[in-house]
Amino acid sequence: MTTPLELVVLDMAGTTVLDDGVVEQAFQRAAERTGVADRMPWDEALDYVRVTMGQSKIDVFTHLSGGDAEAAARATAAFEGAYAEIVSEQGVSEIPGAADAIQGLKVVRTQTSSVHAVAVAGDTVSDVESGRRAGAGFVAGVLTGAHDRPALSAAGADAVLSDVTALRGVLAQRDLLPLVATS
Q: Strand 118-122 relative to strand 159-161: parallel, antiparallel, unpaired?
């Protein structure tokens, strides 16, 4: 028997909002401003950023800084500032149809009865792994962001979707929508 879903958790950049390289740009600005990645060629640092997309920024910066926790904390703060700057400069756009897809779900914000009553969707291996480790009842990967179908599948996604607009249909198809339904 499947547990009806009570909560849907969605990643932002690459899942509901187009990334268009904003995360990478913010990493680069933060690295340039703090020198956190000066110990390696930028191409190597950027490759690491791409592989670890979706993971905690402080963990990524800790690696890039060679384990220097203070430098990683400064770089994380610089990343947050740079991300806000870039969004302010360039704006952001939704993944086409994402707002409608989200509004089509009646989402219970808190007090879920069980972690099995939670659905998670994201565009990175880290998003999928986090949902799996948390014990979410349904975990979806979406192809509008950082990682591809084989990576998301290998991470344990229950479904890999072209974009977040397919989430509601997949949940309905699997009879997971009794509590997360249109109003």
A: unpaired
Residues 118-161: tens digit of each pLDDT: 889 999 898 899 889 888 889 999 998 888 999 999 999 999 99
Is the CB of residue 105 less than 8 Å from the CB of residue 86? no
Classify residue 150 as exposed, middle or buried by CB count within 10 Å of its CB (0-12, 13-18, 19+). exposed
SS3 state at 139:
strand
DSSP string, 26-71: HHHHHHHHH-TTTTS-HHHHHHHHHHTTTS-HHHHHHHHTTS-HHH
CA distance 23 to 29: 10
CA–CA gap between residue 87 and residue 20 (Å, rounded): 11
- Looking at the chain, list the stretches that DSSP marks H as alpha helix, in order from N- to C-terminal side: 22-34, 42-51, 57-64, 69-90, 98-103, 125-134, 149-154, 167-173
